[in-house]
From TrEMBL:
Residues 37-131 form the DUF427 domain. This is DUF427 domain-containing protein. It holds the Pfam family NTP_transf_9. It comes from the Eukaryota.
Amino acid sequence: MASGGAPSQQQQHHHQQQLNVQAFPRPPLVERCNKHIQIMWHGALVADCPAGESYWVLETHHPPTYYIPPKCVRLPLCTTPRSTFCEYKGQATYYSLMSPISAADTVSNRIWSYMEPMRDYEAIKGYIAFMVGPWECYVDGERATAQPGDFYGGWVTSNIVGVFKGPWATWDPPQNAYAPNVPDQRHHAAPFPNMQF
């Protein structure tokens, strides 16, 4: 697929190494990510980030959250009054995005960044993160689904397994409650690899 087009099924990677969220670290790890990230909404390309230009944040019980440089976002974002604080990354700034087909359809507070991140997270300063939905989010051509609960911003793809932290900020979900793709990985968590795979 040429950069800028809609992702195709042929792009999907069916033999990716599985990553178990229970093997992810805490405090979270931020790494350069060798994945092609795209976001589509009503057929328009909202963001297109080539492999190697984004970061992902990996945290125990969370699927990856992807942070992309502002230059890769093709539609304008407007800041909103909302602000939240993360004990690791710092104060988050939130944005609204107007639908490419209707000015009346504006979605707020599902996009954020850290303009002054705390130590160890400076790499993502000013980078933009999107929750999954209402737009479609793709990782190397595979459409991601949202982390359960509509509270956190993780992206779930077919190679992400384990028990996810879910709704109502639950810290330790019941075994198998949010464990897609595998019956149980709680006691079989393989170490996550460096992002260069």
